[in-house]
Design goal:
This protein is an alpha+beta fold. It folds into two domains: 95 residues, Alpha-Beta Plaits (2-Layer Sandwich); 72 residues, ACT-like. Chain A, domain 2 (Alpha-Beta Plaits, 2-Layer Sandwich), CATH 3.30.70. It is built from four helices and nine strands. The strands form two sheets. Strands 5, 6, 7, 8 and 9 form a five-stranded antiparallel beta sheet that branches. Strands 2-3-1-4 form a four-stranded antiparallel beta sheet, covered by helices on one side. A hairpin with a 5-residue loop joins strand 2 and strand 3. The longest helix has 13 residues. It is elongated and about 55 Å long. The two termini are 22 Å apart.
């Protein structure tokens, strides 16, 4: 099962390297990782998507809490949330196919962000399924370059994952794992 974790960390140099190193040392694979400053400039939020059962999730959580920079971990997988990814795709575009590519972009509500003599660069945001479908729709035209962000997510409604509220996994914090 894929788990989406919202991890609050101190906004200090090296935090990302320590978290990524922890995953690497333990043999855990990160499916997606996005990091950015929060409404509090002293904190950053990592949205981490990791594949595994509940045992793997528990191990990941315990190991993350051992890092001094980690403040709070929330598994939002079971909650209702809004998630988005961003993709930039550069596609081969001769004049004969340009109209077709623009139609595909319109269907997915994508934007043209650069137009060259032989290429079009498109930007699309959406959930994982939409981004995958957009990519597959453009593949026949010849994808020259593709850059994709990791998932970002926020809980729906009145719930939130900052320091005061949310689904906190701190009860799993232990000293000897």
């Amino acid at each position: 099962m894929r788990h989406t974790l919202a991890v609050l960390v101190e906004n200090t140099p090296g935090v990302l390297a320590r978290v990524a190193g922890l995953f690497s040392r333990r043999g855990f694979n990160i499916d997606s990782l996005a990091v950015g400053r929060t409404e509090n400039p002293d904190l950053s939020r990592m949205t981490i998507v990791v594949e595994g059962d509940d045992r793997i999730l528990e191990q990941v959580t315990k190991q993350l809490y051992k890092l001094i920079d980690v403040i709070k971990i929330s598994d939002i997988t079971a909650d209702e949330y809004v998630d988005r990814e961003l993709v930039l795709i550069k596609v081969s575009s001769d004049p004969a196919h340009r109209g077709e590519i623009i139609q595909v972009a319109d269907i997915f509500r994508a934007r043209i962000v650069d137009l060259g003599r032989k290429t079009i660069t498109l930007e699309c945001t959406g959930n994982d399924g939409k981004i995958n479908a957009f990519e597959e729709s453009l593949r026949p035209y010849g994808i020259k370059e593709l850059v994709r962000t990791g998932k970002i997510a926020v809980l729906r409604g009145l719930k939130y994952t900052n320091l005061e509220s949310g689904t906190d996994l701190s009860s799993n914090k232990t000293e000897n794992v």
